[in-house]
């Protein structure tokens, strides 16, 4: 036995196409990838420098803001205190509140630690209050360090404040203690912009947000909401001197850099959205991608053209063989190369001619067997003339039959049982129809339609039809009797009529049926509907055709649906016989 044909591991077209395509596209990919990588590296370095510079600038501005407050406080502790109240100091203190809006209140403490003056924007002013402030951390810190910046506190749970204390150059000058509202740092950070939408914010030593362009975030003092900012600060501390990618409070991807405010120990962090930061890179990548696609399209077109010239004869042969194998026997393979491939194409064309003849004969027999008894189909095929199936007017006997009580039976019985019984029922009918040389046109549910004397004429069609109906009754009643355990309650009735009918192939190109139309068809259907279990009802034309050769009983005229006048009906009364 010959080995089965093995499919090639790779087609010639694929090999040639990939080789030519890769020769153009691979250098483009290498060049594009290199440009993208180095462009990204350069842009990242530039962003590092830009964000670091912005962070340092912001830190310097905030430090200048805090040092400005410190310097203003120093003017209030230039001279030593006297024993009496000093009206000039009170005026200087009020002037400081006016000139420095960030200072909420100012207290002046003498060398002994006694509070000599207190002015406030929201509280009562006190002169010579005398409260002992010597244990106040602000006083102690200022005496030790000359300038003391306290921790940030949130008054009323929202606004950030800081205590700033400054000691005079001489102990006798005392200490100035100011409460500073850090909301005013907003003016500094809101003016900072990195690119179009970048921004800056400030965290204190405890990683709390004390300044942000959106001041409502500061006033809420929500530690959970500012967690992404603290994560950014931790990541920057882990990799100093480098812009870090992370998420801001809205969850957007940003690049961030940080600079310290050394005076107060705060951290200024500036951010820029990643989309904006790498916008030029993205634009360059899109341009590169466009050039790459254009180059790839050009390479593909060139490779396709060259490959087609090399592989077209082989592809034509492969396509032709596939078409012929799929049943398109009228297809011809046109190859004019003048070599072995052209001769091989000719052999395939000859094979297609032979297969077409064979297929035509097989299809003709298949069509005939759908409508005719097998022996009739073979007869028509041997004669080579299927015009007998064309539409024409003939004297035909139309037989209808169906089961009684089938609807109720199918409603209460398992579908598998119904299908199995119908299969046996159809087999019984087909055996009888085939034995009598009739044409079973179709099954419809539990009913069937049968033609006698069409398409192939037969002698004495009425007698043959009634004998066939008797055999059908015998076989089906025997089948129903053998299935009594199903408690089916089924019966079987037959109706037939004889007369002129139009018969032929009817349907679409995809599906054809051989059937009959005419009054005789309607009459046979109505007689079948009127027949009871075990009955065979015959019209007057068929009854007259058999004369006295079969025992028929006239049942009189019956009103049938669709007929204006009553119709004379006959019944076959002799017991059904089995056909041997």
TrEMBL record:
<dbReference type="Pfam" id="PF00211">
    <property type="entry name" value="Guanylate_cyc"/>
</dbReference>
<dbReference type="InterPro" id="IPR001054">
    <property type="entry name" value="A/G_cyclase"/>
</dbReference>
<keyword id="KW-1003">Cell membrane</keyword>
<feature type="transmembrane region" description="Helical">
    <location>
        <begin position="16"/>
        <end position="38"/>
    </location>
</feature>
<dbReference type="InterPro" id="IPR029787">
    <property type="entry name" value="Nucleotide_cyclase"/>
</dbReference>
<keyword id="KW-0472">Membrane</keyword>
<feature type="domain" description="HAMP">
    <location>
        <begin position="308"/>
        <end position="360"/>
    </location>
</feature>
<dbReference type="InterPro" id="IPR003660">
    <property type="entry name" value="HAMP_dom"/>
</dbReference>
<keyword id="KW-0812">Transmembrane</keyword>
<dbReference type="Pfam" id="PF00672">
    <property type="entry name" value="HAMP"/>
</dbReference>
<feature type="transmembrane region" description="Helical">
    <location>
        <begin position="281"/>
        <end position="306"/>
    </location>
</feature>
<dbReference type="InterPro" id="IPR050697">
    <property type="entry name" value="Adenylyl/Guanylyl_Cyclase_3/4"/>
</dbReference>
<feature type="transmembrane region" description="Helical">
    <location>
        <begin position="249"/>
        <end position="269"/>
    </location>
</feature>
<keyword id="KW-1133">Transmembrane helix</keyword>
<protein>
    <submittedName>
        <fullName>Adenylate/guanylate cyclase domain-containing protein</fullName>
    </submittedName>
</protein>
<dbReference type="Pfam" id="PF02743">
    <property type="entry name" value="dCache_1"/>
</dbReference>
<dbReference type="InterPro" id="IPR033479">
    <property type="entry name" value="dCache_1"/>
</dbReference>
<feature type="domain" description="Guanylate cyclase">
    <location>
        <begin position="397"/>
        <end position="528"/>
    </location>
</feature>
